[in-house]
Specification:
The complex is a heterodimer of chains A (390) and B (159).
Chain A: E1 16-18, H1 25-36, E2 42-46, E3 55-61, E4 64-70, E5 76-80, E6 95-97, E7 101-102, E8 109-110, E9 116-118, E10 138-144, E11 147-151, H2 159-162, H3 167-173, E12 180-190, H4 194-200, H5 210-214, E13 222-226, E14 232-237, E15 262-267, E16 273-277, E17 280-290, E18 293-303, H6 308-320, H7 330-342, E19 348-350, E20 364-366, H8 373-385
Antiparallel strand pairs in A: 1-19, 2-11, 3-4, 3-6, 4-5, 5-10, 7-8, 8-9, 10-11, 12-18, 13-14, 13-20, 14-15, 15-16, 16-17, 17-18
Chain B: H1 4-22, H2 26-30, E1 33-43, H3 44-48, E2 56-58, H4 61-74, E3 84-96, E4 100-112, E5 118-131, E6 138-146, E7 150-151
Parallel strand pairs in B: 1-6
Antiparallel strand pairs in B: 1-2, 3-4, 4-5, 5-6
Classes of the chains: A alpha+beta (390), B alpha+beta (159).
């Protein structure tokens, strides 16, 4: 029995997974506690989404609403989006700007740093009431290259430890200096379990994509690895395909000459993926809505130094290539939900390509199109949840 | 006040457009656009915030034609298909030069969900510029601005 009281029969064979973890409500609730509210870090915003003092963004960690605020001291903090008095949700917009944070219910007023500034009728509160004890609940947070992370747990290791093995890739994906500019969002819900989303997002066999065949688009040399923390990191050379299919070839052209033509995918454990493909710079903030639904906010960025022409190109490519209705990635979404629907059958699934019959140990690199690397992430999941093998 | 004949021509185009989409007849959809026509489907959230990334951004004839290819030739057989019904209500018309008109219309698009029931897919406003000079009216610019922030499924077809 695990400390959450939830048990799963996990097959002894290393490349086999039980499908029940995709559907059981009790497993999902245990995951919220152990993973989303446990000692893991979650990317929530890039500084370019809250560039100025007073700017804020709201999101979720698991099902818990959080508020990311750019303070008047230039520090970005992450709070629970909940009044410490009676729990009222504080900000309801996805993004905005404010001078202070006021709870609408009893008019408690907080500074941008989360301090309680005042509350109506405070002289009638309990005798030992201290304002200092009723600031907004701040989460541990940190940022790498402009990407802000937070954790609900005091037990989480330092962010740098959590990210070990990913930072070179993150830097390549989010530009070396992190000076990005937000250009928009695409938001959708997939009828899939968050683990199916995380497992299949960002990288999967190119067989799925008929677009690659129609474009006669061959993948270049690359690497496909998993870090000790269960993060997947993929880097590949990408040569633009020949103009054989599309009427508007710019959809698949590299115009940013500041770096080599390559594709970078960082699938952070547990579920947010960062992609730099062609000239698209994309963070896919993701969170579960239930065991059956996953919400994804595709956020797109340009670089602050982009010429007007390159900016327009990024906007056009971002809109039509890699989002939920994108030329290439629409098919990903179809697979997320079809995997979930099909996994309602009993039994197990087995990963094959690249699995050599013995356990892998992280960090490791596997063949470019191998699915064996996902098994290390599953090992991260299984051990985090405390599920024993048969 | 736009004259009844002009309104009838505007409605003719709107009806042709929604019928094409609900029949999944993408060639007829393409036929609703002028040679220099553009189609943009964007959330109100992005549009209001001045964030230009759209859900679909077809700002040239080449891109409009490519969208038809995506649906008919690339994605076909992989995506989970869904039926739709578009309901469009024109609420504002403004003449724009001699033979063009700017039209605002509300839209609701229903769809068939995974369980076979009917749900609302998206709602919003069409901001259209229509060329009335030819035999058949056509969109010079069609912008579907979705009130829907988070779509309940991935969108395959234009709105």
């Amino acid at each position: 029995m695990t400390d959450t009281g939830v048990s799963v029969r996990w097959p002894a064979q290393y490349n086999v997974l039980p499908k029940e973890v995709f559907h059981r409500r009790d497993v999902y609730e245990a995951e919220l506690q152990k993973i989303f509210y446990g000692p893991e870090w979650h990317p929530l915003a890039h500084l370019s989404e809250v560039p100025n003092k007073g700017d804020f963004k709201t999101l979720q960690i698991g099902e818990a609403p959080v508020l990311i605020v750019h303070g008047d001291d230039d520090k970005v903090r992450v709070f629970y989006n909940s009044c410490p008095h009676r729990g009222t949700q504080l900000q309801i917009c996805a993004r905005g700007s404010t001078k202070e944070i006021e709870c609408p219910y009893h008019r408690w007023l907080f500074s941008l740093r989360g301090e309680l500034l005042g509350a109506s009728g405070m002289d009638q509160f309990e005798p030992n009431f201290r304002k200092e004890n009723y600031g907004l609940k701040e989460l541990r947070s940190g940022n790498f290259n402009g990407l802000v992370f937070a954790t609900c747990s005091e037990e989480a290791p330092e962010l740098a430890v959590f990210l070990k093995g990913t930072t070179d890739y993150l830097q390549k994906a989010l530009s070396e200096d992190g000076r990005l500019k937000l250009i928009g969002y695409q938001k959708t819900i997939y009828a899939t379990n968050w683990k199916e989303y995380g497992d299949n997002e960002g990288y999967h066999p190119p067989l799925l994509h008929r677009a690659f065949r129609l474009l006669r688009w061959q993948g270049g040399k690359g690497s496909n690895g998993v870090t000790e923390g269960g993060h997947k990191v993929v880097e590949a050379e990408v040569q633009p395909p020949k103009a054989v299919f599309l009427n508007d070839q710019s959809l698949v052209e590299f115009r940013d000459k500041s770096g080599p033509p390559r594709s970078i995918v960082v699938s952070l454990w547990p579920m947010t993926t960062i992609v730099k493909h062609m000239d698209v710079i994309n963070i896919r903030y993701a969170f579960p809505l239930s065991q059956d639904e996953t919400e994804v906010h595709y956020a797109y960025y340009a670089h602050q130094d982009d010429s007007e022409e390159l900016l327009v190109h990024r906007i056009r490519q971002a809109s039509n290539l890699l989002g939920p209705s994108g030329f290439i990635s629409l098919e990903d979404g179809a697979v997320f939900s079809r995997v979930h629907a099909g996994s309602r059958t009993l039994g197990t699934v087995a990963y094959q390509k690249g699995y050599e019959g013995k356990p892998l140990s992280a960090p490791c690199f596997v063949g470019q199109n191998d699915e064996a690397s996902n098994l290390l992430r599953w090992e991260r999941y299984r051990t985090t949840m405390g599920f024993d093998r048969d | 006040m736009t004259d009844p004949q002009t309104l009838a021509r505007i409605d003719e185009l709107q009806m042709k457009y929604l019928a094409a989409l609900d029949r999944h007849d993408l060639d007829s959809w393409l036929d609703c656009f002028a040679e220099e026509g553009s189609y943009i489907c964007i959330t109100k959230e992005n549009n209001d915030a001045g964030l230009p990334v759209a859900m679909m951004l077809d700002d040239s004839r080449a891109r409009l034609k490519d969208r038809v290819k995506f649906i008919n030739e690339v994605w076909s057989g992989t995506f989970e298909d869904y039926g739709t019904r578009h309901f469009v209500q024109r609420f504002e018309c403004k003449p724009n030069g001699k033979s063009r008109v700017n039209v605002l219309s509300n839209f609701i698009v229903s769809y068939i969900n995974r369980r076979g029931g009917s749900d609302i897919l998206v709602t919003g406003v069409y901001d259209d510029e229509i060329d009335l000079s030819g035999e058949a009216p056509r969109f010079v610019a069609k912008k579907a601005i979705m009130d829907t922030v988070t779509t309940p499924r991935y969108l395959v077809y234009p709105i």
